[in-house]
Amino acid sequence: MSIHRGDGLQFLESHPSEPGKGVSVAPVLGPDHGAGHLSIALVEIEPGGHVIGHRHPFEESFFVLEGAPLLAVADHQYALVPHDFGLVPYAVGHAWSNPTDQRVRMLRVHAPQPRPIDGRGTWGVFAADETQVPTHGVPVDELDPTKPYVGHFDQADMAPPGSISMPGYHGANVQNVQIRMMVDDLLGARHHAMFIVQFTPGTVNDAPLKTAKEHFHPFEEIYYLISGEARAFCDGEQDLAGAGDLVFAPVGASHGFAALGTEPLCWIEVQSPMPPASGGFTFHNDWSHLKNIG
């Protein structure tokens, strides 16, 4: 497990993964950091900036952190706001623009990772001339079946805190948790999932409640913290993470968490490949009482 600090990010102008004008990319996680499935970055679009129409041989998802960008994806144009999210499916043309006077910042996910195709390029960016830079858009409406690929997170979407229940695992090893699925197979994703996780801090005998007991699994996972503070556990070691930091758990890496302070701990979680329907989460405590003979 590793923690990538938000205050150490470097935004690069004219990054080839987002062809356009007035766009900067800060790579956060990729092959250089030990990831084998996910590529994570923050993307900023300055006022008047845009990304031209392009497509990828992989999925892309996003979560709007700041600003109000326009998105063209397939035959749809959206006017997005903070906490909107969405999916760009495999090989689908898309483009971005920022017609406002405020900077746009988004968390961007690529899964599987970009790689050269036929010996060309590095970032898997191919022209989509039929997709024009958007000049207008409609708000997200999750109840409208004619407006696919996008959604909006609102705190009111959260069910009351309880034990975890999500695709791949439900049980008491993760407690006091609230989850809101965002990008998943229902939205059309096949290679990764993105969702919001929130823990309410608590204590047991004056010690922070370990809300997620230590475990490991056969897929990669990231946690991008948007509020609160966490103590992360990994094979006897501990570290702290706060808003703007990204925690990366590679395949097979042991990890667990406790929420600290008084503010709810909230993060954007991404998994790739998607977890199996069962048997994908192994918690140490479930096996600790069994006799180990090898």
Could you describe the largest sheet, including whether it forms a barrel?
11 strands, antiparallel
How much helix is in the residues?
under 10%
CATH level 3 topology of the largest domain: Jelly Rolls
What's the domain count? 2
Q: Please report the total strand number as a whole number.
A: 26
Task: Give the class from helix and strand content and strand pairing.
Answer: mainly beta
Residue share in β-strands: over 45%
Q: Class of the largest domain, according to the CATH hierarchy?
A: Mainly Beta
Structure characterization notes:
The protein is mostly beta strands and 294 residues long. 1% of the residues lie in helices and 47% in strands. The mean pLDDT is 92. The longest helix is centred in the last third of the chain and has 4 residues, at 284-287. It has one helix and 26 strands. The strands form five sheets. Strands 2, 3, 4, 5, 6, 7, 8, 9, 10, 11 and 12 form an eleven-stranded antiparallel β-sheet that branches. It has a six-stranded antiparallel β-sheet with strand order 1-23-20-25-16-15, with no helix packed on it.
